[in-house]
Specification:
mainly alpha, 0% strand, globular
């Protein structure tokens, strides 16, 4: 259970987070809003995530892992129910903001809970997030077709977190001697002046920006003649997750995984934008998937150990911020010039390729 429970937590949060992209077109139809206005939906969720990760990074030691998990689960239940009952865009945005704020509790606490285990498997932990991405579009599609309202899926999500809350409060035992690492503000200036720290943090921010932007708006431009957008998202996440589960053999096959993957990603995303064929988007999942854990793995070996707690906190906070900025800008252009909109993640991926050359040198 030591590895399974943190994976279950990250999987559950992934379900809600990855339901946003496939639900955007349904939100647009339900509220009769434009693509540009609907960009506020992922923006509110991501802003909540940024604020939450900064807050939890500072106060996790004082809260303790168990209390932080319970607070996060409680906030998630509240946010999910608001979205489920919402009948206006404003109420849905409030629900998204509340859920986003809950995610920092879940991500940071589950990461630290996993880190306590001697045989912690971070590859499978990251893979659990991908599994949520596989199932989320199917859940949205099922709720829309069988329950006549896609927002009913949030009742299911609320139930999942009620069960997690019950298990954590009654069955989860965490030794009081274990201290979770916190986001120490006194170390910020010194750590951020370190070039290695900043290069790896920037790489992860750029990666997250490209990933979130590409995924959020893919459903709005793809042709659905071959497969539905929900199916395309699920297939994307299947390949994405396989890329993470098989990270070790992939790194043995390619010496410079970042350079290889970014070149292929630029080609695939460009072809997807030009042809609108979902096949190129689906295949891109295999190359997006391994990059985050691979860069994080390299970073852990090169960054000063005393900076790692701050690096982890900053990673969760600022990758969300980068994703929210890129996703919002893309949404603003998507109504009028979709090709120009998708130039942004392509440029960001190119920046990853160029910055990675500094790490190699």
């Amino acid at each position: 259970m030591s590895n399974i429970f943190p994976m279950l937590i990250i999987f559950s949060y992934s379900l809600i987070m990855n339901s946003v992209a496939p639900a955007l077109k349904l939100f647009q139809s339900d509220y009769s809003i434009s693509v540009g206005i609907s960009s506020l939906i992922p923006l509110f969720s991501l802003v909540g995530t940024v604020l939450s990760n900064i807050f939890v990074g500072i106060y996790l030691n004082k809260l303790g892992l168990k209390r932080a998990l319970l607070i996060g689960f409680g906030i998630t239940i509240f946010g999910s129910l608001i979205i489920a009952f919402s009948n206006t865009l404003a109420l849905s945005l409030v629900g998204m903001l509340i859920f986003g704020f809950s995610s920092g509790f879940g991500f940071n606490s589950s990461t630290m809970l996993l880190a306590q285990n001697k045989n912690a498997n971070f590859g499978f932990f990251h893979g659990a997030y991908g599994l949520g991405g596989i199932l989320a579009p199917l859940f949205i599609q099922l709720a829309q077709s069988r329950m006549n309202n896609f927002k009913n899926v949030y009742f299911i999500y609320a139930t999942i977190f009620i069960l997690l809350f019950a298990y954590t409060s009654t069955r989860l035992h965490i030794t009081t001697s274990t201290k979770a690492e916190a986001f120490k503000l006194s170390e910020i200036k010194y750590a951020f002046s370190n070039s290695t720290f900043m290069i790896f943090l920037t790489l992860l921010i750029l990666y997250s920006s490209a990933e979130i932007g590409t995924i959020n708006w893919a459903g709005n431009i793809m042709k659905e003649g071959i497969v539905t957008s929900a199916t395309a998202y699920s297939l994307f996440w299947i390949l994405f997750t396989l890329g993470r589960f098989f990270l070790s053999p992939i790194t043995k096959l390619f010496k410079d995984l970042v350079s290889v993957n970014t070149i292929v990603m630029i080609i695939l995303v460009s072809l997807f934008v030009i042809t609108k064929n979902p096949l190129f988007f689906i295949i891109a999942g295999l190359f997006f998937g391994p990059l985050f854990p691979y860069i994080q793995q390299i970073a852990v070996g090169k960054i000063e150990k005393s900076h790692l707690p701050l690096f982890n906190g900053a990673t969760y906070a600022f990758t969300s911020l980068g994703g929210s900025i890129v996703s919002t800008i893309m949404g603003a252009f998507l109504d009028t010039v979709p090709i120009v909109s998708y130039l942004l993640p392509i440029i960001v991926i190119l920046a990853i390729f160029l910055l990675n050359r500094k790490v190699e040198n």
